[in-house]
Design brief:
This protein has 106 residues and is an alpha+beta fold. The protein contains four helices and five strands, in the order E-E-H-E-E-H-H-H-E. Strand 3 and strand 4 form a beta hairpin. 21% of the residues are buried.
């Protein structure tokens, strides 16, 4: 896999979480959809879309962005809503080092 920073919506891209699994990340979100990232004086609180909680457990380093979109569509999340939520989630978590997006190598 090679890291990609250009388009998190590439259907073949594979998201990966770093330092935490998706279930724990979802459980760490507050009722107001915030997440504390970092430790001690380095900790910051970030705001996430409410639907991010449902995406995190699906990120396993194997599911592609297309897989995530299809699985959420079965839960009533439209393609346009997924795109909005996914872009916002990656925009918040990537700078914190919690998520990366890679393309499979040919």
């Amino acid at each position: 896999m090679r890291p990609v920073t250009l388009d998190c919506m590439n259907p073949e891209a594979v998201p990966r979480l770093h330092g935490v699994d998706g279930i724990r990340l979802a459980m760490a979100m507050t009722d107001t959809h915030q997440l504390s990232v970092g430790e001690g004086s380095e900790a910051v609180v970030v705001q996430l879309p409410p639907q991010a909680r449902g995406i995190f457990p699906l990120i396993d380093g194997r599911n592609t962005v297309a897989d995530l979109a299809v699985r959420l569509e079965t839960r009533g999340v439209s393609a346009s809503q997924f795109e909005s939520v996914w872009r916002a989630t990656v925009a918040v978590l990537a700078p914190c080092g919690l998520i990366s997006i890679s393309l499979p190598t040919p």
